[in-house]
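Fill in residues.
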């Protein structure tokens, strides 16, 4: 039982690390990549882009470890869904974070060549930079869908097993809806990324994850639910 509660604490810490790393990546890269003259900005702020890509990788790896840590526990209740959770949140989402970080790093040499080339010879590098950013924009909605499917599986399992209070897992299930809506509305151009509208729609799930992380660190999993899972596994 102590080892399982230690797992709960580690999962909580991983959520916090992933969230902080993700926020830092946005703070570092958002003003640069969102600027109309982003290629010049990237060239002048290479360290920030590298740091932003590093934080994306930290976020991806931290969040990928959550389903890995949770699988031995969740498979006792529903092995098929537990495996699906590992695939969506552990594998597919991590690959997307890696692709995102690589696309940012590729922008650095493109921006350097763009600055060297000067006008009018820079059009090729503008096109290449636009393709890299467009790839980033296309990854966004796919990543949102993958994330939401993985989160839906996770919170459904938590709700069914009662490993954490049902008000907390139920909160996660409900908060997925506006989060998914925000990603799709950004993709279809109803409002921009990191706009007030997107932040408002994302906030319920972001807050729920932090409350759950603290709960797991302080309280751990429900002992009676763990006992029920052990009996089921046996």
């Amino acid at each position: 039982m102590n080892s399982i509660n230690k797992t709960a604490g580690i999962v909580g810490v991983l959520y916090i690390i992933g969230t902080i790393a993700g926020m830092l990546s946005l703070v570092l890269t958002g003003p640069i990549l969102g600027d109309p003259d982003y290629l010049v900005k990237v060239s002048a702020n290479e360290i920030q882009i590298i740091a932003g890509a590093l934080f994306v990788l930290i976020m991806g790896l931290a969040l990928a470890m959550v389903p890995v840590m949770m699988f031995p526990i969740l498979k006792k209740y529903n092995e098929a869904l537990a495996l699906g959770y590992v695939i969506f949140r552990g594998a597919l989402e991590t690959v997307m974070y890696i692709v995102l970080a690589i696309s940012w790093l590729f922008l650095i040499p493109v921006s350097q060549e763009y600055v060297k080339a000067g006008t009018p010879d820079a059009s090729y590098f503008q096109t290449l930079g636009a393709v890299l950013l467009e790839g980033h924009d296309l990854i966004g909605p796919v990543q949102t869908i993958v994330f939401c499917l993985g989160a839906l599986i996770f919170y459904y399992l938590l709700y069914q097993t009662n490993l954490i209070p049902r008000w907390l897992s139920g909160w996660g299930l409900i908060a997925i809806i506006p989060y998914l809506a925000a990603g799709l509305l950004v993709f279809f151009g109803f409002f921009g990324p990191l706009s007030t509208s997107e932040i408002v729609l994302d906030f319920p799930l972001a807050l729920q994850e932090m409350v759950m992380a603290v709960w797991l660190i302080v309280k751990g999993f429900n002992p009676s639910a763990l006992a029920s899972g052990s009996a089921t596994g046996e």
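The mean pLDDT is 86.
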